[in-house]
Design a protein that fits this description.
Blueprint lengths: L1 H7 L16 H10 L11 H19 L4 E4 L5 H10 L4 E4 L3 H14 L4 E2 L4 H5 L4 E5 L4 H14 L5 E7 L5 H10 E6 L6 E9 L1 H5 L9 E5 L4 E5 L11 H9 L9 E5 L5 H9 L4 E6 L2 H13 L6 E5 L11 E6 L4 E2 L2 E2 L2 H13 E12 L5 H7 L3 E6 L3 E7 L2
Parallel strand pairs: 1-2, 1-4, 2-3, 4-5, 10-11, 10-13, 11-12, 13-16
Antiparallel strand pairs: 5-7, 6-7, 8-9, 14-15, 16-18, 17-18
Helix pairs in contact: 1-2, 3-4, 7-8
The structure holds S-adenosylmethionine (SAM).
């Protein structure tokens, strides 16, 4: 165990004076072991370590005071449990977009026998008066914009926002986003494959300005749809309409016209669920997504279009939580990325769950990038599949549950 950690941290552990305070190997190893069965998903990486190593140097005082630290988009709980276990933080406020991350944190907290954190219900509650924010960067500048704005608006004047990312996925525009809301923004030198951005001196006036140019959530009326789309920072497609989504929307009037219940798997900004509810006044739609940003955006889109009474929004991993045989129609524009990694795992989990959710004779209508060749997968996981429409880029299929 010790040797593995020594290798992965370079020579850090052979030079204790120089690296005092770095993440100890037994902590790192615990996280690595928990995810041996999912080798693609590395539970702790150099970016988490870098953030945890630097946290006491940028605002050690905040780490020692209860309730003064917030952690954002922690993938598996490493940052939260590291702040608690290694640095003595307590009453840590945690914001995690993905339900998978929330569950990983809960499970890992059980392993460590640690609590000392909670998930506040809003960004204001998450950041009000905090003095240190540890943030794992995603690929979305809009996500960073909404978060940085909220930190600058609600946190204490001496707050430090410590952001970490993988250098190859970072770009200068992230510094520009932070400079909108902070007077001082510095970038660390790279360490391994990672880099940190440190923002201080929150510009509260800028972050609070109630002008129309930059509010979150953002709202746009799409004329040809006759609908308003509402997006929180980082939701798929933002306030625009994805090309694949449009192809599905154009085809979906033919989807099980008699259905009284439908599910939108991976609802994003809620465009499909809301359009369906608007076009079919009798139908009830359950919209689900693993992402809190998507859930919040879908609720807002449904509200903006007056269909909240028939669109229920549930945060769920691939529809796992939906009842067996609860729906006659499932609509899906599946993901093919997990943040920066191309993956069809979530799509296949959705297809598998669609087969469970559907009543006998019900159909999964799905749009996908034609090069993905999902048809045999749909045949195997759901049932007889026919092509409804094919454009140069996208295919819509209907898969019938026997
Ligand atoms: C291609 S987008 C489609 C969004 C929206 N339906 C649209 O057409 O604009 C896929 C959506 O699936 C969501 N997603 C990814 N993995 C998921 C999972 N494991 N469970 C549920 N939703 C997931 C993403 O958050 C994203 O909102």
């Amino acid at each position: 165990m010790w040797n593995t950690a020594c290798e992965s941290l370079g020579n850090a552990w052979q030079q204790p004076d120089r690296y005092a305070g770095a993440v100890p190997p037994d902590f790192a190893d615990l996280f690595r072991r928990r995810h041996d069965d999912a080798p693609d998903l590395i539970a702790i990486d150099g970016t988490d370590r870098f953030i945890l190593d630097e946290a006491p140097h940028v605002h050690g005082d905040a780490l020692r005071q209860p309730g003064e630290v917030a952690v954002v988009d922690d993938r598996y709980g490493v940052l939260t449990l590291g702040a608690i276990t290694l640095h003595g933080a307590s009453d840590v406020r945690v914001v995690q977009d993905s339900l998978v991350g929330v569950r990983a944190l809960e499970a890992n907290a059980g392993t460590f026998g640690r609590r000392g954190f909670h998930h506040p219900g809003s960004l204001e509650q998450a950041f009000r008066d905090v003095r240190l924010v540890l943030l794992r960067l995603s690929k979305s500048n809009d996500r960073l914009d909404e978060l940085a704005r909220a930190v600058a608006r609600f946190a204490a004047p001496d707050v430090v926002l410590l952001c970490g990312g993988v250098s190859k996925h970072m770009n200068l525009s992230q510094n520009d986003v932070l400079r909108r809301y902070f007077g001082e923004v510095t970038a660390s030198r790279g360490r391994g494959k990672s880099r940190l951005l440190i923002a201080q001196d929150p510009l509260r006036a800028q972050a609070t300005r109630a002008d129309a140019t930059n509010p979150w959530p953002r709202s746009v009326h799409v004329d040809d749809l006759g609908m308003t789309l509402v997006a929180h920072g980082g939701v798929f497609a933002g306030t625009s309409l994805d090309q694949g989504t449009r192809v599905l929307l154009d085809a979906m009037d033919g989807a099980v016209p008699t259905a009284r219940t439908a599910v939108d798997l991976g609802c994003g900004n809620g465009v499909i669920a809301t359009a369906l509810a608007r076009r079919r006044p009798g139908i009830r739609v359950v919209a689900t997504d693993v992402s809190q940003i998507a859930v919040a955006s879908t609720i807002a889109t449904a509200r903006a279009n007056g269909v909240t009474d028939r669109v229920e929004v549930v945060r769920s991993d691939a529809g796992d939580e939906l009842a067996e045989g609860s729906s006659q129609l499932v609509l899906c524009n599946p993901p093919f990325h997990e943040d920066t990694t191309v993956s069809t795992d979530a799509a296949e989990a959705m297809f598998r769950n669609a087969a469970t959710i559907l009543q006998s004779g019900g159909e999964l209508w799905c749009v996908w990038n034609s090069h993905l060749r999902y048809r045999p997968v749909l045949e195997r996981l759901v049932g007889t599949t026919r092509q409804v429409v094919r454009t140069p880029k996208f295919t819509v299929t209907a898969s019938r549950r026997a």
